[in-house]
Amino acid sequence: MAGLYIHIPFCRGRCVYCGFYSTTAFELRQRYVDALCCELKMRKGELGIRSDIHTIYLGGGTPSQLTIPQLRQLFDTIYIYNNVATDTEITIECNPDDVSESFVEGLRTLPVNRISMGAQTFDEARLRFLHRRHTASQVFSAVERLRKAGYTNISIDLMYGLPGETLNDWETDITHALSLNVEHLSAYCLMIEEDTPLHQMLQDGKITETDEELERQMYETLIDSLKAAGYEHYEISNFAKPGYRSHHNSSYWDGTPYIGVGAAAHSYDVRTRSWNVSNLHQYINNIEQGERLFEEELLDEDTHYNDTITVALRTCEGLDLTTLSEKHRTYCLQNARRFLNDGLLALDSSSQSLRLTRRGLFVSDMIMSELMGDGSQ
Q: What is the pTM of this model?
């Protein structure tokens, strides 16, 4: 099985925190969709004729900024050049303000069966600060429209640790999110990345970073609240009602091959990792000339080990030590010893799995970096 990711980079405006590749060049939407269809044709059978596509994910950017005819053209091409399984999870990311009655009506004519929306916060002032286009009420309206249209798999994204946000503010956001009764929820602590407007605001002294202890309290509150509401905490930042884990994201964490189509999209086939050029004009021009402009990295045994550490430990199942070579298993356990002693990692001797404890979740990046090798192990 394999996954298919389609990157749609168009946005009406850039959120202050966003580090993903995006563009406001809407006049190029149709040429871009045509180029995506050409790339899909060019890469037909890339993962082998026996590899059915079992997840399709349209991310961005803002995929809901494409028209319904453009989305239909894209899906028609996907089905022509790929073996799509009948039970494939097909997700599209949407901005709440794009989810109008007419958009939902058109969406129902497409094979999409899962919706992911970026709510981020339900506080109007913080939404304006983040440069989000939607209002809090539009999130509720969007979910209601999708429910009336028959969608039974909806996910929303939340963000915490925003400048000036208090624990009470975050608790209010969680309460609003739970009232939507969606099947899946992702929550991320704000990361201030370089080359973003938010980073410039920090450099200029216009904002201050949230205290780490407050971020930890927010994360603990998130876990407690969602578990009490019946959600499974199946990955560091992801929660799902039983049976509603994101299959596409889970495929990243368990090493399933995937093809990434579009500008800046990444692909992985176990042996190599590749990524398309992060420039809309270059991408379109090269595809129109029958050439895919990309970079590629060959993955050796040590790189595979590091990749496994960074994805497997994110999940509630943890790292299956039996999948590692004897060399890497020994190295991993040696470096894990102090975290086991400190109660940040737990070792299940029966299943031979290593996982983060509740305390270890908040410092997961530090733990993973210590377990990763430098090629000399």
A: 0.94
